[in-house]
Design goal:
about 190 residues, mainly alpha, about 10% strand, binds zinc ion
Length: about 190
């Protein structure tokens, strides 16, 4: 598995688990742009950020990103990850506010009624930020934000649809099992 650190399987986010609300796919994709035990950082270069975002459910139109855009997206991503990991920490939410303040938005209403944030300019990174914020809004008002978690082993963000909200691993086969084997080995080592 170590080889994946330098040779990713693909340029996109990890596949979504069954039971993950489709309204949150883009947000979870965005959060999984960070480096994990098995995937490299995707927001370290404009070209890799663009390749990654084009495979996320975020309405990214594929226009090139600048280094400054990529840095803004990375700051927002890190703030959101912080809020997943420590949802009661006001600093995490303040950091999200600072990051989103870089993208001027307006509210767009339509028959339904539907209400959504829309970037004021046709800037590609601003449009991605608006899309992320719309999915964040959905997660907040539906109470689904509390269901987002990060794998205790590889840090991949997932949607926890267990009844008890106690999911710890992105998948038992990939991470839960390995973590348990490692814990068992360290226990038996100590006994020797
Ligand atoms: Zn994992």
């Amino acid at each position: 598995m170590l080889k994946h650190v330098t040779a990713p399987i693909d340029d996109g986010p990890p596949p979504q688990d069954d039971g993950t609300p489709s309204e949150l796919h883009g947000l979870i994709d965005f959060l999984n742009s960070r480096a994990t035990a098995r995937r490299p950082e995707r927001f370290d270069h404009p070209a890799s950020a663009a390749a990654f975002l084009s495979r996320c459910a975020l309405d990214y139109d594929g226009r090139p990103l600048t280094a400054a855009d990529t840095a803004r997206l990375k700051v927002l991503r890190d703030a959101l990850v912080h809020a997943v990991e420590e949802p009661a920490n006001p600093e995490a939410w303040a950091a999200i506010n600072d990051a989103t303040a870089t993208a001027p938005m307006r509210v767009q209403t339509a028959v339904g009624p539907t209400i959504a944030l829309q970037a004021q300019s046709r800037h590609p990174a601003d449009a991605v930020i608006a899309s992320v914020l719309n999915q964040l809004t959905n997660a907040a008002i539906t109470g689904r934000w509390q269901r987002l978690g990060a794998c205790a082993r590889c840090r991949r963000v997932f949607y926890d649809n267990t009844r008890s909200h106690t999911r710890r691993w992105c998948s038992y086969a990939n991470c839960g099992n390995r973590a348990n084997v490692a814990a068992y080995r360290s226990r038996t080592k100590k006994r020797r």
